[in-house]
Amino acid sequence: MERIRVSNGDITLDIRAAGPEDGEVIILLHGFPECWATWRHQIQPLAAAGYRVLVPDMRGYGESSKPRGYRRYHLDELITDIDAIRRHSGRQQCHLAGHDWGAAVAWWYAIHYPQALISLAIVNVPHPQAFLETLRSSPRQLLKSWYIFFFQLPWLPEWLLRLNNFAILRHMLRSTSSSAAYQDEDFDFLSHSWRQPGTIKAMVNYYRAMLRHQRQPDQPEIAVPTRILWGEQDIALSLPMARKSLDYLTHGELITYPDGSHWLAHDKPREVAVRIMEHISHSQTAT
């Protein structure tokens, strides 16, 4: 893989790149508490298929910039990073895939920059409108989302996440994923990211920005061809939200995995690669 840097105002993004420079671009976005290596099993198959694969450490993670203040992690700001990557690639349009917070950013980008997308692939995060509606109407989902409210506290979340060499983060990933989904190499990449000054605080600030500056999309419908991949064993996000997300898609499809967890790219690495390639190959590039 190559390693490139892309600027967006005062933000610099550290990006892994693979595949032919003249291939159609696909941007892969990771979420909490991971890094670019969320997609390490999917990068090579996509590159080998002829796609130009761009995989950033999101704002606040790894060796990308970590602005101070939770307001800098609002979705409205985060999507400008994605558009900066697309513009740096020289393409008018790209494919976009995201998991967890990366999926939340991908949804928001598709709502606000639909003309810039050929296709959208989402892993285990519902459409933002579906999430808000379910959170307000379902006590069960509200209980599942307890961590969002915990992360609003000052300093304590950061202290706990750093404690004992990030023991809580390691335990969380191991205990909520399929057996042996996370290997030593995964934790080598993750530990490098977590140890970067400011990363842990930035990771929590995503959630602070989410709750303190929450707003509904003005026009939630998405016409971009969208495929949702969903592990049904997700302990934080319920399957009905995935189904409800289809209500906001003109061309949407949901594929579920009864034995898959929230960390589907690790649980089923080959399957996720195949399903994303299948989806983007069926989406037509605008002329």
The H/E string reads: EEEHEHEHEHHHHHHEHEHH
CATH topology: Rossmann fold
Shape: globular
What is the CATH-assigned architecture? 3-Layer(aba) Sandwich
In short:
With 287 residues, the protein is of the alpha/beta class. The chain has twelve helices and eight strands. It has helices at 40-48, 75-89, 101-112, 128-137, 139-144, 146-150, 156-176, 184-194, 199-212, 239-245, 264-267, 269-281, and strands at 2-8, 11-18, 25-29, 52-56, 94-99, 117-123, 226-231, 252-257.
Give an overview of the whole structure.
- By secondary structure, the protein is of the alpha/beta class.
- The protein has an eight-stranded mixed β-sheet, sandwiched between helices.
- Helix 1 packs across helix 12 (269-281), helix 2 packs across helix 3 and helix 4 packs across helix 10.
- It has one domain (2-281): Rossmann fold, CATH 3.40.50.
- It is globular, with a radius of gyration of 17 Å.
- Helix content is 44%, strand content 17%.
- The model has no long low-confidence stretch (mean pLDDT 95).
- It contains twelve helices and eight strands.
Any descriptors?
287 residues; alpha/beta; Rossmann fold; 8-stranded mixed sheet; 12 helices; 44% helix
Q: How would you summarize the topology of this molecule?
A:
Blueprint: E1 2-8, E2 11-18, E3 25-29, H1 40-48, E4 52-56, H2 75-89, E5 94-99, H3 101-112, E6 117-123, H4 128-137, H5 139-144, H6 146-150, H7 156-176, H8 184-194, H9 199-212, E7 226-231, H10 239-245, E8 252-257, H11 264-267, H12 269-281
Parallel strand pairs: 3-4, 3-5, 5-6, 6-7, 7-8
Antiparallel strand pairs: 1-2, 2-4
Helix pairs in contact: 1-12, 2-3, 4-10
